[in-house]
């Protein structure tokens, strides 16, 4: 039973160690997501579950690793108790009664590598919990990069060759009779020691010689022509993980070469509520609305990097792209201090021609996200919570450059913030897009709804500059069911894309409402992005 459980759990581990790497091939996923000929909308929506798939494979690896270790502890005891005197090559123990499981496993290559792999897996799993990721992202980042050590140990783990198979089944079939060995044990030793035993593999058996009945079947006796030979199984794990591991390594090499040249920072803007905007330029950089990049600043951290959604994509007329990041941790705080001359500024634009040397910044990407599909629906609902508005900012910037080339014909933009100052991050962008659509006689193209969950300081937004937004500012939280019912009523028998980036509470409500039916024949397809 121990061998059966260990082999079965090993097969499950092989499969999941193979699949867990595929969701981390970001370039491959971005290619599939951006190619409508290769992947349909349903397939691209499945790619949005890549993070969930990665976590599922990781949890499965943890569970079956525990089962695999427990089974091998039982095997270690069985190997010592069932020591085989006849077939010494099959024994994993050194002698009968070697009951020290820890010693038995430590002297074997699979045992040493297995113990280290369990420790590495324990560190990776515990550091991947939500509490540690939120409180100390550095611990999660560094421990998760131990996966390379895990896979190297896995390659060595399967090379021990504990389980073996027989290679000479024709010469020594199972259950055959070996006369030269068996008869020596059963016959009386001849008096004349110089008289050799007859070779019964070539000579006939004496009539008075009794042959054990298990070796006689239908008056036919199977004779062994040689001793059994055993050989270790070729490790199947290499077949499972070599392909995905090589694919991942090639992609990481490609990403390193692509991001090796630092970008040129054109300006840095400090927005209210601890939000920093960085605008950059890079040769041959192309991106689609909704995509994200990974920023790496060696002066902040030599190994650490973080993903940020593009809020401005390069176009045919301008090569500038940008990101908005909220200062909430050690990395963003150090990054802000390096970029700004004074950290207490409210709004400061620092052009590149000033006597200010920005630190080197490397950009890896862009990579795909679910929000790329927002322009591929005829009707889309974009729901943002606080800084979660960043993926929709690139969509709004793209529509500002031109909206007629996209399938999208109506956009519902809903933004929920706690304080009034947060709306100033993209208030200018919303006003410009609103005025542009009014001039083109398409005021119904975008429906803007701004919700202020806390009413302190509401008088600050009143002004002529944001007059178009004042009429769309609402107090309190959205009534999501009534809101979706109203949208379904206005868009009967249509498929509407629902995109959400914000708190998990809003996400769960929208996900549940999108899956529920309505009386207008409208279908909601829910999409969500999360970097946590």
Short structural description:
With 532 residues, the protein is α/β, with parallel strands linked by helices. The chain has 17 helices and 16 strands.
Describe the structure.
With 532 residues, the protein is an alpha/beta fold. It folds into three domains: 165 residues, no CATH class; 92 residues, Elongation Factor Tu (Ef-tu), domain 3 (Beta Barrel), CATH 2.40.30.10; 162 residues, Rossmann fold. Helices cover 39% and strands 17% of the residues. The chain contains 17 helices and 16 strands. The strands form four sheets. The protein has a six-stranded antiparallel beta sheet. A hairpin with a 2-residue loop joins β2 and β3. The two termini are 41 Å apart. About 9% of the residues have low confidence.
How many domains in all?
Answer: 3
- Give the percentage of residues in beta strands: 15-25%
Give the termini distance in whole angstroms.
41 Å
Helical residue percent band: 25-40%
Number of helices, counting only DSSP H or I runs of 4 residues or more: 17
| Unreliably modeled segments | 183-195, 197-203, 208-219, 342-355
Q: Which outline best applies?
A: elongated
Instruction: Characterize the main sheet.
Output: 6 strands, antiparallel
Radius of gyration: 34 Å
Number of strands: 16
Strand arrangement in the largest pleated sheet? 5-6-9-8-7-10
Structural class: alpha/beta
Mean pLDDT comes to: 78
GO molecular function: NAD(P)H oxidase H2O2-forming activity; superoxide-generating NAD(P)H oxidase activity
Keywords: Cell junction, Cell membrane, Cytoplasm, Disulfide bond, Endoplasmic reticulum, Glycoprotein, Membrane, NADP, Nucleus, Oxidoreductase, Transmembrane, Transmembrane helix
Pfam family, one: NAD_binding_6
Membrane topology: Multi-pass membrane protein
């Amino acid at each position: 039973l121990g061998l059966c459980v260990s082999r079965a759990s090993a097969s499950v581990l092989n499969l999941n160690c193979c699949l867990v790497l595929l969701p981390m091939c970001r370039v491959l996923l971005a290619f599939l997501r951006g190619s409508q000929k290769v992947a349909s909308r349903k397939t691209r929506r499945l790619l949005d579950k890549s993070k969930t798939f990665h976590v599922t494979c990781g949890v499965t690896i943890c569970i079956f690793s525990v089962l695999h270790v427990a089974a091998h502890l039982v095997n270690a005891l069985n190997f010592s108790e069932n020591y085989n005197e006849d077939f010494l090559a099959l024994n994993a123990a050194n002698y009968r009664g070697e009951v020290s499981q820890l010693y038995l496993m430590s002297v074997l290559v699979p045992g040493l590598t297995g113990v280290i792999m369990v420790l590495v897996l324990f560190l990776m799993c515990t550091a991947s919990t939500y509490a540690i990721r939120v409180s100390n992202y550095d611990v999660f980042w560094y421990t998760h990069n131990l996966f390379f050590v895990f896979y190297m140990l896995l390659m060595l783990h399967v090379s021990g060759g504990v389980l073996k198979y027989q290679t000479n089944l024709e010469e020594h079939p199972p259950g055959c009779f070996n006369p030269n060995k068996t008869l020596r044990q059963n016959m009386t030793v001849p008096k004349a020691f110089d008289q050799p035993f007859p070779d019964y593999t070539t000579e006939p058996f004496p009539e008075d010689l009794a042959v054990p009945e298990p070796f006689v079947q239908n008056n036919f006796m199977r004779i062994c022509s040689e001793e059994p030979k055993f050989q270790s199984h070729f490790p199947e794990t290499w077949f499972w993980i070599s392909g995905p591991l090589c694919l991942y390594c090639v992609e990481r090499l490609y990403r390193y070469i692509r991001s090796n040249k630092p970008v040129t920072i054109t300006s840095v803007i400090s927005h209210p509520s601890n939000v920093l905007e960085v605008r950059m330029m890079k040769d041959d950089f192309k991106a689609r609305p909704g995509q994200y990049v990974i920023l790496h600043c060696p002066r902040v951290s030599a190994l650490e990097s973080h993903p940020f959604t593009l809020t401005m994509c390069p176009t045919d007329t301008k090569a500038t792209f940008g990101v908005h990041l909220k200062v909430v941790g050690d990395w963003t705080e150090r990054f802000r201090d390096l970029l700004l001359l004074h950290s207490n500024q409210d709004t400061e634009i620092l052009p590149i021609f000033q006597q200010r040397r920005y630190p080197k910044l490397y950009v890896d990407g862009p990579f795909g996200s679910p929000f790329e599909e927002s322009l591929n629906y005829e009707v889309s609902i974009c729901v943002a919570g606080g800084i979660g508005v960043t993926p929709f900012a690139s969509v709004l910037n793209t529509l500002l450059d031109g909206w007629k080339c996209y399938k999208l014909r109506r956009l519902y933009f809903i933004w929920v913030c706690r304080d009034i100052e947060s709306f100033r991050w993209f208030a200018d962008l919303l006003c410009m897009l609103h005025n542009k659509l009014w001039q083109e006689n398409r005021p119904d193209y975008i429906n803007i709804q701004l919700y202020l969950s806390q009413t302190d300081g509401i008088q600050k937004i009143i002004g002529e500059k944001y007059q178009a937004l004042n009429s769309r500012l609402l107090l309190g939280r959205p009534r999501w069911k009534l809101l979706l019912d109203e949208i379904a009523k206005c868009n009967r028998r249509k498929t509407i894309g629902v995109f959400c980036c914000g708190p998990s509470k809003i996400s769960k409500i929208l996900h549940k409402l999108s899956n529920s039916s309505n009386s207008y024949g409208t279908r909601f397809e829910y999409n969500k992005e999360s970097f946590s």
